[in-house]
Design a protein that fits this description.
The complex is a heterodimer of chains A (178) and B (205).
Chain A (H helix, E strand, L loop, with lengths): L10 H11 L2 E6 L6 H9 L4 E4 L3 H13 L3 E7 H4 L3 H8 L7 E5 L9 H16 L3 E5 L2 H18 L3 E5 L1 H4 L7
Parallel strand pairs in A: 1-2, 1-3, 3-4, 4-6, 5-6
Helix pairs in contact in A: 1-2, 1-7, 3-5
Chain B lengths: L20 H10 L6 E4 L3 H8 L6 E3 L7 H11 L5 E6 H6 L2 H9 L4 E7 L2 E2 L5 E2 L8 H8 L4 E3 L3 H13 L3 E6 L13 H11 L5
Parallel strand pairs in B: 1-2, 1-3, 3-4, 4-8, 7-8
Antiparallel strand pairs in B: 5-6
Helix pairs in contact in B: 1-2, 5-6
Chain lengths: 178, 205
């Protein structure tokens, strides 16, 4: 912390603060190494109901039920997990107009060491564009809070899901264990 | 208590009486006195729920096979004072077995899962599911950590198990059912279904 207090907050602290400021109390995830500090922060804060589930589409079902019951929720996953949810998006979340907040830790780029992850990433944005689901790739901590705050409010207002793709430029990504 | 129809292992289901989904759905709905939420799984599960009488607290799934239980869990977390019931078919449950362990881990007292097991993927042409001969869905539920899981031996026991489930869960009731198709078909308007449901839950005024 500098005297002026201008030192950048850690990305995961900004995400947590944005969720809280927008009354998003439920967080469901399928684990990811890069998301670990965010998940730890969510677990540690009693404001949130936070737990792991077994599949990403299961998380979207839980979020959809929670939204209909009056509780806002976010789901956290990695890129390969996203590849398992197009059916849940296309046949539940999008047609039912559920403002699911979907955080994806981006694998498959900027130093990926796993070909499978790199291939899966190539499917993600085309799928989102085909479904006309809003998505933002976030690379800079200075923009993170603004993008999250405005986009969460927009998702709720227009009753549509939104995807936040957290770039390795923001999170540091997962390093190749040399 | 280990009765014949609750015997562990594959085939335990086959000592339970073969019942009818619409008959049991009507019996179930007749016991709802406190605006309980009901999530009807894809296909015949929600067709029979629809035909058993429209309730503002019913949600009818039009897609996303396998997600009736996760949706019900979400409602149960959001509204802990309201009991929530998920109606799911055997094929749908087999697609998303992990959700049983999530339910067990979260242990919502206000959640009841009802599984209609006819041993076939009825709506796609009657192909056999694994529960027809080998998989025991109640044993799977218990193994997932939902201790209060049981086969309903007959209609009377189904009633009794459901009344008990409404007192506190999570619990799972499995019923062996016939291959009769669902009665009627749900209006397929997802926004209207979602909006009515939210009114029914008091979220929309």
């Amino acid at each position: 912390m500098t005297d002026s207090g201008t030192q950048a907050a850690a990305w995961h602290d900004t995400v947590l603060a944005s969720l809280k400021a927008n009354d998003v109390k439920l967080a469901v995830y399928v684990p990811d190494r890069v998301l670990t500090p965010l998940i730890a922060g969510l677990h540690a804060d009693s404001f949130f109901t936070c737990f792991a589930c077994t599949r990403e589409e299961e998380a979207l079902g839980i979020l959809s039920g929670a939204w209909m019951g009056g509780l806002r929720g976010a789901v956290l996953m990695q890129t390969s997990g996203f590849a398992t949810i197009p059916n849940a998006l296309a046949s539940l979340v999008v047609p039912s107009q559920i403002p699911a907040l979907i955080f994806v830790s981006e694998r498959g780029t900027l130093g990926e060491f796993n070909l499978g992850q790199a291939m899966v990433l190539k499917t993600m944005r085309p799928v989102l564009d085909a479904l006309a689901v809003d998505h933002h790739t976030i690379t800079r901590g200075e923009e993170l809070g603004f993008i999250l705050d405005r986009s969460i409010k927009q998702a709720v207002a227009i009753q549509a899901p939104v995807v936040f793709i957290l770039s390795p430029l923001l999170t540091g990504g997962k390093l190749f264990a040399a | 208590m280990t009765t014949a129809h609750n015997a562990p292992g594959a085939g335990g289901a086959h000592n339970a009486k073969v019942m009818n989904r619409f008959v049991l759905t009507k019996r179930l709905v007749s016991k709802l006195k406190h605006e309980e939420a009901v999530i009807g799984g894809i296909g015949n599960s929600n067709f029979d729920l629809w035909s058993a009488g429209r309730r503002p607290q019913n949600f009818y799934m039009l897609g996303s096979m396998g997600l009736a239980i996760p949706i019900a869990l979400g409602v149960a977390i959001a509204q802990p004072k309201r009991h929530v019931v998920a109606l799911e078919g055997d094929g749908s449950l087999l697609m998303q077995l992990g959700c049983l362990s999530t339910v067990a881990q979260q242990a919502p007292k206000n959640l009841t899962i009802v599984v209609w097991d006819n041993g076939i993927y009825q709506i796609t042409g009657g192909q056999k599911t694994a529960s027809a001969a080998s998989a025991d869905l109640v044993a799977i539920a218990r193994g997932s950590g939902i201790a209060k899981s049981a086969w309903a031996a007959d209609e009377d026991e189904f009633d009794r198990l459901f009344e008990d489930a409404l007192q506190g869960g999570p619990s799972l009731i499995a019923a062996r059912i016939d291959d009769k198709p669902g009665v009627g078909a749900t209006d397929r308007d997802p926004v209207q279904i979602r909006e009515r449901f939210m009114h029914g839950l008091g979220v929309r005024k």
